[in-house]
Amino acid sequence: MDxxxxxxxxxxxxxxxxxxxxxxxxxxxxxxxxxxxxxxxINSGASVRSVxxxxxxxxxxxxxxxxxxxxxxxxxxHIHSEIYRRRPDTNAVIHAHPLWxxxxxxxxxxxxxxxxxxxxxxxxxxxxxxxxVNTKKLGAxxxxxxxxxxxxxxxxxxxxxxxxxxxxxxxxxVYLEENAQRQYLARNLGAPAVLTxxxxxxxxxxxxxxNLLQKVWDYHAGKLRSA
Length: 227
Description:
The chain is of the alpha+beta class. It has one domain: L-fuculose-1-phosphate Aldolase, CATH 3.40.225.10. Helix 1 packs across helix 7, helix 2 packs across helix 4 and helix 3 packs across helix 5.
């Protein structure tokens, strides 16, 4: 048992829960920054996301080189490494391929905060390059597009979440997709009400609390364990 077993286990659970929720598919990935080092834990490129184990979590440097001869990371590891290089506040990154929010990026429609949980999402930026972010240059451009925000949508591709912890990144990924689904469905009835700036400030202050984030995690973890 190595010193990162617990972090690997948390990453595995996050990915499995997102896969069960239809947010991560066969190509999604999540990472955790090793404190004080230019290294990260991430699921390997070859890993099967629906049956992930801690043996599928590998450590690489920010150039994608496996540490201690482990398996290679996903080809889009640049998404993670380039955000980490520019964002010392970020300790976890998730790249997912969610259905509902990706529909908005495909059509150029913005995801707007229409449910209370969306108040914590912040500004959602869009990266307009269609295709895999599989080079350092593209990763750097994406990180620039993300800026200081928590979420970027990749046009016709998926989402990128940057947060202070795996827990925060997981909850943001869930909230993004829940909001997008409800926004899409509400449009069949009429124009959904969008949270005002004042409402966003008030609601975000109430919801962005560790115990409430943990509640989301525990809900999905319970479903995962009972399956």
